[in-house]
Amino acid sequence: MSTNPPDLRPDIAPAARLSDAPRPGQPTIGMVSLGCPKALVDSERILTRLRAEGYGISPDYAGADAVIVNTCGFLDSAKAESLEAIGEALTENGRVIVTGCLGAEPDYIREHHPRILAVTGPHQYEQVLDAVHQAVPPDPHPFIDLMPAAGVKLTPRHYSYLKISEGCNHKCKFCIIPDMRGRLVSRPAHAVLREAEKLVDGGVRELLVISQDTSAYGLDRRHDTVPWKGRELRNHITDLARELGQLGAWVRLHYVYPYPHVRELIPLMADAGSGVLPYLDIPFQHAHPDTLKRMARPAAAARTLDEIAAWRAACPDLTLRSTFIVGYPGETEAEFQTLLDWLDEAQLDRVGCFKYENVEGARSNALPDHVPEEVKQERWERFMEKAQAISEAKLAAKVGRRMQVIVDEVDDEAATCRTTADAPEIDGNLFLDEGFEDLKPGDIVTVEVDEAGEYDLWGRRV
């Protein structure tokens, strides 16, 4: 049993879980999945296609005929982590195919690792399959290699990420994701809902909706309509969330920009029967208007506070999670203090924070007045200290309350659960250390909170 550290990076997905036991003689592929939940969904899709073609999935290097490394290129530190993972796979296995965001820079990868078999970019599923076919020819067994209806999942059985779009239309100066993944392309609503139905039918109790910009869903399609169960359904995040909420699973929205139409989601979240959790993950990034302008982001922090107040008035149980960057080029002490003051007023429930890093290709690299590393570290520590104090006070106010929790894990000591306010891996936990023996992952039970820490809660079943 462990508690969440305050510096848990919000761009990292849960570790991929591989448990398939290949049949004797079956060609097998290993997978290393790095980066964000969107990349984890890409890994699931690749493995589902390979599994359908008769490949086995190996949980270790030794049992794999080749290894796919799905890379991250979000930060320079993430690129270094990806290169290290490629090197490890080459050392342990020797036959490596690289894909993902860093795959958009094949020359950079081959400069460090010339022995790799192939490189493909993000969400280039067909190219990955072609590379696997060339390295390890398929040998399907028509009676044994049956594909589960829900496909291959790399998360625990009871929750799943549901990707609703690719790409992004924003031009934030610190980010190269649009260069790697392209402009916004929304999946048709009926395709998203069909996938969600299969997941729920397969035992998923929580759908984590992800994209690069969830609230922009359908904008590229001009919010056109698609046929769904005898009627027309609009490709719009409000309509999609409403339909997802009717499937019988928790629906949690991630990466939601605070556009005005986000107000339409709040009544859904306030309705306990809608299935849409009162939870918004919004990447505010900063609060000072000058910093936001240098980031090329909307500079309306004051109006954002008004919007937050309106959301909470309509939905008092709303949980707000966000991420911020400290030490952005040109950030003065006064600008950073504005961020701290804003955080004091906004009272966000869950907060992640990055120290700014240059990323090759990002326009922010050319900005003047880069902040020294020691100042970035000092500001990060001050920011997290304030965020921790806010979290501790908010959790203390929950002592004595009854709430529903979903069980993630059960061991000899306790059941590790999450409330509706907590996304897996990046938020807190609620621990049950008695009366948990009959529980299993995916169970949803009612508890009363009897103790609170800085990031986690403890409770008892009622």
UniProtKB/TrEMBL annotation:
Keyword terms, alphabetized: 4Fe-4S, Cytoplasm, Iron, Iron-sulfur, Metal-binding, Ribonucleoprotein, Ribosomal protein, S-adenosyl-L-methionine, Transferase
Co-factor binding details: Binds 2 [4Fe-4S] clusters. One cluster is coordinated with 3 cysteines and an exchangeable S-adenosyl-L-methionine.
PROSITE patterns according to UniProt: MTTASE_N, RADICAL_SAM, TRAM
Binding residues annotated for [4Fe-4S] cluster 1, in chain numbering: 36, 72, 101
Coiled coil: none
UniProt GO cellular component terms: cytosol; ribosome
Residue numbers spanned by region Disordered: 1-27
Domain TRAM: residue ranges: 396-462
Domain Radical SAM core: 154-393
Sequence positions that bind [4Fe-4S] cluster 2: 168, 172, 175
Alphabetized Gene3D superfamilies for the sequence: Methylthiotransferase, N-terminal domain, Nucleic acid-binding proteins, tm_1862 like domain
Record's protein name: Ribosomal protein uS12 methylthiotransferase RimO
Obligatory cofactor(s): [4Fe-4S] cluster
